């Protein structure tokens, strides 16, 4: 794999670990005071980042695509936990 995709994989692992630590320390149970419009805008931003990852995966081999997809899923998990929990 190229360095860029190893970096994507490393960032995804860090995001997942941060989500797990945040879940067990009660970080996500604090009230978030986001209005409905802000939640929609955050979701649109998250899906635009995921679309950017999908476009970025063109020309990647299988493992590079899996690495970028893992980063996308980890990012979406973090967004959902921060905004909707």
Automatic annotation (TrEMBL):
PROSITE patterns: PROKAR_LIPOPROTEIN. Keywords: Membrane, Transmembrane, Transmembrane helix. It comes from the Bacteria. The chain crosses the membrane at residues 6-28, 40-57, 63-84. This is Uncharacterized protein. It comes from Pediococcus parvulus.
